[in-house]
Structures are given as C-alpha cells and as structure tokens.
Amino acid sequence: MKIFGIGRNYAAHIAELNNERPDEPVIFTMPETALLLKNRPFYYPSFTNDIHYEVEIVLKISKVGKNIDVKFAGNYYDEIAVGIDLTARDLQQKAKEKGLPWAIAKGFNDAAPLSGFVPKKDYDLQNLNFTLTVDGETRQQGNTGLMLFNFDYIISYLSKFFMLKKGDLIFTGTPQGVGPVKIGNRLEAFLEDKKMLHVDIK
Ligand code: MG
Hints:
The chain is of the alpha+beta class. The chain is 15% helix and 33% strand. It has one domain: Fumarylacetoacetate hydrolase, domain 2, CATH 3.90.850. The chain is built from four helices and 15 strands. A hairpin with a 2-residue loop joins strand 10 and strand 11.
C-alpha cells in the first residue's frame, strides 16, 4: 500500500508559509508505518520540537490504474476520510532550505492519523467542508472548492508516475490555519458536522 501527500494545494496555506504557488501538484510519499488508526494517541517524538497539525481530506483508491484520464479519475475512488498530516516543521524547514526531500519531516511513525472511511456518494466533493479543532477550539476550516488541484486532477497526475492500486491513500492537502501541537492537546477532525477522528497528544 502506498500513501501519497499533496503539498501546497490551498492558496491561503501557501501564503501563510510563504511558499511558491506550484504549477503542478507537489507530491510526497509516506510509509505505511506513518498511519495512526483507531483514535490511538500520538506520542511526541524527541527528534523535533515543532510538530504542526494539517487537516486533510483523504482518498482511498478502489482499483488499479495508470495514466488515468482526468475525466475517468472519479471511477478510481469510492471512499473518503479525514486525516491529519502531522509535520515536523523544523525538520521540513531545514530540508526546504537545502532543497532536500521531506521524508523524515512527513513520514515518521504515526505522522498520519486517519479516520474511518465514508462513501463519497454521500457528499458534494466540490464543496466539502472539513474542520480541525484543538482542545475544542476551531483552528482550521477547509472547503474543497478552494483546492488548486481537485481530487480528479490529483489522481490523474499521480497515475502518470505511479501505478495506483486498490487501498492506496492520498492526503489531498491542507487549508490555512496550521499550527503547533503540544503535549496534552486533543485534536478533533470533522467532515461537515460529523466528528470523524480524535488524537490525544502525549
Ligand atoms: Mg499536508
């Protein structure tokens, strides 16, 4: 199983980190050991002092495909979830300054808390609201209508380089409002009004 992440997919988030707006999706990958499932707690690791939350909509690929045309991309996923792309911002910043890959900043153990999946047919994918709260306070509010690259485009683009297989996951990028997590915080993620996920930081 492969896990992809999309960077810089919401203009307001690009602006808050002073990044450049990309011409094509910014892709990174995470190992399977990055997944944190079933509302398990997250234990703050010693190699970073600046882990940020990034709430994202996650797609699950439903069948094998490569070189998928945008107009057929919707046939390759049936379910969506909410995930949190925990990012060691200090390690990522060092890597960015040197033009080096983000692997350790994004793909460390438990860096990708993930909710259960729900059928995409129950939602308007072009106008999907999702939210992250920290200790009950809203910190991120996203709407998929604001993505630079929509779900179908992302799937088509990824499939040019990587054969997609059933069960592969795509974290589709975070909106503005990212910030640090602290030991003792509870993160909660919502799809529309439905609570999908919580993570206690220990
Ligand atoms: Mg992200």
